[in-house]
Design a protein that fits this description.
- The protein contains two helices and four strands; from the N terminus they run αββαββ.
- By secondary structure, the protein is of the alpha+beta class.
- The protein has a domain of 37 residues.
- It has a two-stranded antiparallel sheet with strand order 1-2.
- The N and C termini lie far apart (51 Å).
Length: 109
């Protein structure tokens, strides 16, 4: 095979791979926004932005927050904005909160 045919074939393969990657990216319904490790804090700003602290939550801060009413969020909870307000939907005894939003995400719960 000549060098020009080989170069043309290689370019064609690269183009096909590139286009399939773009097509896959366009069909994704969700992306992982961040992870939340032990002691990390995430704040939802009233304007809808999300901030992740670079400072760990201390045991004293956690204890004070618990006394003020902080509680554990259930796995599968969904936080969303609608009409300028932020909402939290958690699992109930009979159904998973995420089931109401499953069509919005690429991951199952």
């Amino acid at each position: 095979m000549s060098v020009s045919k080989r170069a043309l074939l290689t370019a064609g393969v690269c183009l096909a791979v590139g286009l399939s990657t773009v097509a896959m990216a366009q069909t994704k319904k969700s992306t992982e926004a961040t992870t939340m490790g032990e002691g990390e804090a995430i704040m939802l700003h009233p304007k809808g932005t999300v901030h992740k602290s670079n400072v760990k939550v201390s045991a004293a801060q956690h204890e004070a927050a618990m006394k003020k009413g902080a509680r554990e969020l259930k796995a599968g909870s969904v936080i969303y904005r609608q009409g300028g307000k932020t909402y939290l939907m958690e699992d109930s005894a009979n159904e998973k909160a995420s089931s109401h939003f499953q069509s919005n995400f690429d991951v199952d719960y």
